[in-house]
Design brief:
Layout: H1 11-39, H2 49-95, H3 106-118, H4 122-139, H5 151-159, H6 165-179, H7 186-201
Length: about 200
């Protein structure tokens, strides 16, 4: 017979040997455990109906508690999801407002704010008052319109004014509504109106 050379150092052969050893080890452990359990004697009181009833009660109790916990967590997640979707859609409503343009007067924005407040759209009302403030600053040639101007730039210019507080209040509310976790309410709209009325008196 001729000698057949067997390659015993390639990766495929080594992997198959390793897999075979692991499966043999598991099989040996399984039979040893089964033999040990067969030789073990359990106390007779474990077979009593009371122990079986308690075991069933504990098992089904754990199942019930687990289901209640899963339902409770699910409801929390649904509430969180709805709140974030509403917040996201409110922000999109604000961000999709038409850009302020010189042909929209201060009176136009004030009228829009009043209508939004009557309809219960408090976020829109606050946004319109903010736009009215920007239009007022443009009309007074304090801050001319620039589409590229950011809230931060408005804030810096407003800070140099002699009485910046009402402007800063409207700017801060606008930023919180657009980028924070603020939700508009009737009291927030009233705060915006107070700030806007202070601006008119300046």
């Amino acid at each position: 017979m001729s000698d057949i050379s067997v390659e015993t150092n390639n990766l495929g052969w080594q992997l198959s040997q390793w897999q075979q050893r692991i499966s043999e080890k598991w099989e040996l452990m399984g039979t040893g455990l089964a033999n040990n359990l067969a030789d073990t004697t359990f106390p007779s009181w474990l077979n009593s109906p009371l122990v079986k009833a308690i075991t069933h009660l504990l098992f089904w109790g754990m199942i019930a508690v687990s289901l209640i916990w899963i339902i409770w967590k699910g409801q929390q997640w649904v509430r969180w999801y709805r709140r974030n979707i509403k917040s996201y859609s409110d922000r999109r409503t604000i961000n999709n407002m038409p850009e302020i343009t010189p042909d929209r007067s201060v009176d136009h924005w004030v009228s829009q704010a009043q209508q939004a407040q009557i309809q219960g759209n408090y976020q829109q009302a606050c946004q319109c008052l903010y736009q009215a403030m920007l239009q007022q600053l443009h009309n007074q040639k304090i801050i001319p319109h620039q589409s590229s101007r950011t809230d931060g730039e408005y804030g810096k210019i407003i800070a140099t004014m002699s009485q910046p507080q009402p402007y800063q209040k409207l700017l801060r509310i606008h930023q919180e509504l657009c980028f924070g976790n603020f939700s508009a309410s009737i009291s927030l709209v009233e705060t915006c109106w107070q700030a806007y009325e202070e601006i008119i008196k300046l």
